């Protein structure tokens, strides 16, 4: 009898909606130039630590988009959000993708040049 429920898609049961990241503070105040440099370095090196390049590209597009577009990108790529702020994501094969806070939002102590 319970078989009908077990056939539900895991993505339906475990789907999380993307939420705006919580405010955070960097140990050292950053300029917008510093933040951009850190983000570029992360995205340039992230694929070398595992996972698929296409998934990293989708994560970058989602990280740089507004929340509704980011949700559409994540959904269409079949990604599973372990954290609603996208700092921990898994692909359909179970590969783990960790994103630092600084690629998702600006710190509260950002120095505007």
From TrEMBL:
Gene3D superfamilies, sorted: Ub domain-containing protein, DC-UbP/UBTD2, N-terminal domain
One Pfam family linked to the record: UBD
Disordered: annotated segments: 1-29
Stretches assigned to the DC-UbP/UBTD2 N-terminal domain: 16-112
InterPro entries, per database record: DC-UbP/UBTD2_N (IPR032752), DC-UbP/UBTD2_N_sf (IPR038169), UBTD1/2 (IPR039869)
Compositional bias of kind Polar residues: 1-12
PANTHER family documented for this protein: UBIQUITIN DOMAIN CONTAINING 1 PROTEIN-RELATED
Annotated protein name in UniProt: DC-UbP/UBTD2 N-terminal domain-containing protein
Natural source organism: Platanthera zijinensis
